[in-house]
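Narrative summary of target 7.
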Amino acid sequence: MGRTTVAILAAGGLIMSGMGASTATSSATAPPSQLSAHGSYEHGTVSVDGSELRFVRGGSGPPLVLLHGWPQTMFQWHKVMPTLAENNTVIALDLPGLGGSTIPADGYDKATTAQRIREAVTELGYERVALLGHDLGSMVAYEYAYQFPDEVSRIAVLDAPLPGFGLENSYGMSFHFTFNMAPAPIPEKIMDDEDVETYLGMLFNNTVAPQEIAQETYFKAYADSDKRTAGYEYYRTFPQDAQRNQANAAERQIAMPVLAMGAEVTFGPGVAESFRGVAEDVREVVAPATGHFIAEENPEFLTDCMALFLGSGDQTDVPPELTGCHA
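Modeled conformation, tokenized:
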């Protein structure tokens, strides 16, 4: 994959290229690559409540929606998207306010964000999808599954406990939690444009394979102070999210299968432990030899696991570390 894959995703808008607003049906032909057998990537924006969401779509088969985390954009999927697209129609979205999506005035709680993502998915023509979320995207994936259970076949969540179910116990792991959650304009005043590389670089370099992370792409994505504020707003709503998650779980648990994958050196089995508080069917997986940024640090493990979880992989002779990935 390498440079060719990056070129494909750049053509699809994962690298913000200054593409103007477009409709959900705009398209671009991917350069020659292993994806060429699966047709072209489409890219564009979808209008939802309070925002225009940037998307990239490729492959064929059952729809799989990818939801990124902070401080990344949907470019975080650039290593796994080609493989996932071999058996799925893969739709990657920038969360409202981040990456190539426009900035809504409010609604950064994960319940509202899930509604916006679902609106985009519906506008793109899908009634029932699987979800793969990382970090903030995992929290949004849970809310999507809770609010629209008949429209979600299964969800996979990567390396993030839920607010109200263990995330609070992680605040001591890194000061960025409380820094980002501080009320406006505290982080906005402290963090200047020239500080972005230092701050985000600290987070990216505190992992197993920092050289595998497209750091420069994310530095550019958060160079805009308004984008940084949008990121802070996702953190500032964690207390609200925690209350809602606890209320949700008291009412009912989600019933579809949940693949809960933690990274070996960060949350590990804690992700599954968290989601057992809100879901009936949780499959615990620990991604070996990786830190928080699994999709970039250990993409092969993630795609192997997702193939099993989505039912497109060989279910026989599965190695022990992939046992929890079974469909």
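The radius of gyration is 18 Å.
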